[in-house]
């Protein structure tokens, strides 16, 4: 599936960058092939416009923010968050030409990130119940560009059969390649998948898991949110520690995405520090990234094409494909792919 060629994907919210990235001025971002400028307005809320001035096409992200509006760096034409040109500095007191406007997009802040939907969103940003809940701390783990597609990242994140291989250096058990099956539940946002998996617990992860057992368990309540968000709802039963990750795999174009990763923990900074948790998950995520960047980003979602083979543990990946196919069909689209 070529994400830039499926218009319905423009109707979802995606996490683009941390709000703090806008503290020192406007920033460019390419979402589904659409070039955007993001900036922080006077009231602190973010705004998103097409990154193209309607005067001589200069990128507005090369400009600056003044009184909460975005000013083009070429001749100073100024736009508000609706995209309307509100000032032409060379012609004070003269009417602004009718139609002098730049396309605006839905934009808001949630969970410390700027989220954008390119067209009227079909559903809300996924709900993270741990965010702000008593006893939980939020850790911004990553904001990384990966050379792969969101479908590849999403299915990898539900695929318990890769642990023994990709993650054999830390929690994967190489001689136990048969994964524990998931129990699936349908939800209105995608699906939920529950299982308990055994993991290796080397000394380096004692503070992460909260236990010193050499082999321990993860109880997982994972969730898939159509199209490209997921929850890794991990509890270590031996310690009662929750290690709950949310990801948004934000499509840049047909070959690149941004991985946004939030972590929620119900322990203290003294028990396991923010940096230790980032370092631990970063090493694991780097292993996934290494493999995923070596796959074809054009993941086939219409399984009738039979260009990829499957095994029983691919069930969540096949459910993701089916939900994406159903979404396309419901909006009169077929999968667009490279021939
Ligand atoms: Fe933007 Fe001229 S190109 S003001
Ligand atoms: Co992995």
From TrEMBL:
One of its GO terms (molecular function) is dioxygenase activity. The keyword Metal-binding applies. Keywords: 2Fe-2S, Dioxygenase, Iron, Iron-sulfur, Metal-binding, Oxidoreductase. Gene3D superfamilies: Naphthalene 1,2-dioxygenase Alpha Subunit, Chain A, domain 1, Rieske [2Fe-2S] iron-sulphur domain. Residues 13-116 form the Rieske domain. SUPFAM superfamilies: Bet v1-like, ISP domain. Signal peptide: none annotated. Its EC number is 1.14.13.-. The keyword Oxidoreductase applies. InterPro entries: Cholesterol_7-desaturase (IPR050584), Rieske_2Fe-2S (IPR017941), Rieske_2Fe-2S_sf (IPR036922), VanA_C_cat (IPR044043). This is Aromatic ring-hydroxylating dioxygenase subunit alpha. It comes from Uliginosibacterium sediminicola.
């Amino acid at each position: 599936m070529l994400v830039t060629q499926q218009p319905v994907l423009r109707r979802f919210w995606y996490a683009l960058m941390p709000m703090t990235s806008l503290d020192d001025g406007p920033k460019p971002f390419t979402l589904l092939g659409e070039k955007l400028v993001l900036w922080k307005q006077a009231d602190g809320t973010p705004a998103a416009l097409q990154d193209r001035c309607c005067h001589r096409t200069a990128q507005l992200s090369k400009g600056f923010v003044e009184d909460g509006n975005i000013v083009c760096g070429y001749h100073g034409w100024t736009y508000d968050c609706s995209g309307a040109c509100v000032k032409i500095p060379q012609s004070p007191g003269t009417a602004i030409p009718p139609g002098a406007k730049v396309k605006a997009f839905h934009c808001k802040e949630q969970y410390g990130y700027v989220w954008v939907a390119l067209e009227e969103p079909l559903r809300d940003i996924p709900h993270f119940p741990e965010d702000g809940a008593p006893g939980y701390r939020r850790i911004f783990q990553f904001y990384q560009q990966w050379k792969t597609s969101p479908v590849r990242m999403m299915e990898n994140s539900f695929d318990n059969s890769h642990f023994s291989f990709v993650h054999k250096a830390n929690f994967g058990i190489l001689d136990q390649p048969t994964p524990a099956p998931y129990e699936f539940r349908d939800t209105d946002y995608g699906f939920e998948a529950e299982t308990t998996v055994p993991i290796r617990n080397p000394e380096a992860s004692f503070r992460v898991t909260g236990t010193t057992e050499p082999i321990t368990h993860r109880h997982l309540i994972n969730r898939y949110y159509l199209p490209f968000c997921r929850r890794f709802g991990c509890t270590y039963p031996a310690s009662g520690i929750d290690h709950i990750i949310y990801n948004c795999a934000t499509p840049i174009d047909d070959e690149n995405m941004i991985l946004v990763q939030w972590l929620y923990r119900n322990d203290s900074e003294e028990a396991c520090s923010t940096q230790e948790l980032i370092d631990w998950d970063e090493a694991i995520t780097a292993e996934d990234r290494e493999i995923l960047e070596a796959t074809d980003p054009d993941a086939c979602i219409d399984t009738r094409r039979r260009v990829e083979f499957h095994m029983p543990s691919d069930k969540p990946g096949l459910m993701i494909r089916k939900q994406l196919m159903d979404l396309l069909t419901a909006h009169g689209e077929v999968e667009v792919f490279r021939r």
